C-alpha cells in the first residue's frame, strides 16, 4: 500500500484537535490560537514530523506549525502528538501554494524547508519549494529579520535554490555543502527523517539560510 493511501487518514485528520482546520480563518490570529506571544516557526513539507516535533520539544517558547500536503504522512505526526501533547505545535494539511492565505504579512519568524521534493523536470520547476514563485509567497508572510532555512542532499536542487535566491535578491547568510562536518552550522542541528536516511547512505547534506530583500 502506498503511504499516501492509508484508509481513513482524512477522517482522522478532520477530527484531530492538533490539526488547524479552515486554516485561512487563522490568518493574522496565530498568537491567539496558541494563547501566547511567542514567535511562530513554520515547516513546509514536514513529512512525519520528526524534525518539527524535536524543535518543539527543545524550544518550548516558540510556536511551531507543520504543513504537509498528504494526509497519510501527516497522520504519523498526529499519532506521535497524541502521545506527547506538545502544547506549542499545530499541523495543517494543505498545499503550501496557499501559504500567503494562511499567514498574514510579518506573521512568520522562521521557515524550514527540509529535503523538499526536487521536481526534476524543468516544466515542474515552479513546484519546487525554493522556486522564485514560492520565494515570492514567503516574502508576503515573513517578519523583519526572519530566516528561511533549507536542507537537502540534492546538489542540483541546492544550486537551483541559490540561483533563485540570487534572482530574487535575497540575502544568503549561511551556506554549507557538508552540514554534518561544519563546526558552526552543525551545532544544534536537528536531523529529519530523510536526513538520517540519506546521510546513512554517505550523502553529504547541504544547508543554507537566507532572508528576503529589505528584511
Ligand atoms: N521534511 C521531511 C524530511 O526531511 O524528512 C520530509 C521530506 S519529503 C521528501 C517532502 C515532503 O514534503 C513530503 O511529505 C511531501 O508530501 C511534502 N510536500 C511537498 N510539496 C509540498 C507542498 N507544496 N505543500 C505541502 N507539503 C509538501
List keywords for this structure.
215 residues, alpha/beta, Rossmann fold, 8 helices, 7 strands, globular, binds S-adenosylmethionine
Blueprint (SSEs and pairs):
Blueprint: H1 9-15, H2 30-34, E1 40-44, H3 50-58, E2 63-68, H4 71-84, E3 89-93, H5 99-102, E4 108-114, H6 132-141, E5 142-152, H7 155-167, E6 171-176, H8 193-200, E7 206-211
Parallel strand pairs: 1-2, 1-4, 2-3, 4-5
Antiparallel strand pairs: 5-7, 6-7
Helix pairs in contact: 1-4
This protein binds S-adenosylmethionine.
**What are the secondary-structure elements, in order, as H or E?**
HHEHEHEHEHEHEHE
* CA-atom Rg in angstroms: 17 Å
Largest sheet: 7 strands, mixed
The average pLDDT score comes to 96
Structural class estimated from helices and strands: alpha/beta
Beta-strand share of residues: 15-25%
Helix content: 25-40%
Tell me the strand order in the biggest sheet: 3-2-1-4-5-7-6
Spatial gap, N to C terminus: 45 Å
Q: What does this molecule look like?
A:
The protein has 215 residues and is an alpha/beta fold. The chain has a domain at 105-211: Vaccinia Virus protein VP39 (Rossmann fold, 3-Layer(aba) Sandwich). It has helices at 9-15, 30-34, 50-58, 71-84, 99-102, 132-141, 155-167, 193-200; strands at 40-44, 63-68, 89-93, 108-114, 142-152, 171-176, 206-211. α6 (132-141) links the parallel β4 and β5 (142-152). The longest helix has 14 residues, at 71-84. 39% of the residues are buried. The model has no long low-confidence stretch (mean pLDDT 96). Bound molecules: S-adenosylmethionine. The site of S-adenosylmethionine has 20 residues, from β2 and α8.
Amino acid at each position: 500500500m502506498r503511504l499516501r493511501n492509508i484508509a481513513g487518514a482524512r477522517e482522522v485528520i478532520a477530527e484531530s484537535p492538533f490539526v488547524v482546520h479552515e486554516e485561512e480563518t487563522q490568518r493574522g490570529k496565530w498568537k491567539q490560537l496558541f494563547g501566547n506571544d511567542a514567535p511562530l516557526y513554520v515547516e513546509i513539507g514536514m513529512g512525519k514530523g520528526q524534525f518539527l516535533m524535536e524543535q518543539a520539544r527543545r524550544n518550548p517558547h516558540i510556536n511551531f506549525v507543520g504543513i504537509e500536503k498528504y494526509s497519510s504522512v501527516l497522520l504519523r505526526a498526529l499519532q506521535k502528538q497524541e502521545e506527547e501533547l506538545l502544547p506549542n505545535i499545530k499541523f495543517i494539511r494543505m498545499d503550501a501554494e496557499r501559504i500567503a492565505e494562511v499567514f498574514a504579512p510579518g506573521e512568520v519568524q522562521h521557515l524550514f524547508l527540509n529535503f523538499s521534493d526536487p521536481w526534476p523536470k524543468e516544466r515542474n520547476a515552479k513546484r519546487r519549494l525554493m522556486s522564485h514563485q514560492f520565494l515570492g509567497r514567503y516574502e508576503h508572510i515573513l517578519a523583519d529579520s526572519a530566516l528561511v532555512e533549507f536542507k537537502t542532499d540534492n546538489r542540483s536542487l541546492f544550486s537551483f535554490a541559490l540561483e533563485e535566491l540570487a534572482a530574487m535578491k535575497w540575502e544568503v547568510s549561511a551556506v554549507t555543502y557538508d552540514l554534518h562536518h561544519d563546526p558552526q552550522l552543525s551545532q544544534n542541528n536537528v536531523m529529519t527523517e530523510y536526513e538520517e536516511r540519506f546521510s546513512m547512505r554517505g550523502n553529504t547534506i547541504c544547508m543554507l539560510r537566507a532572508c528576503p530583500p529589505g528584511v
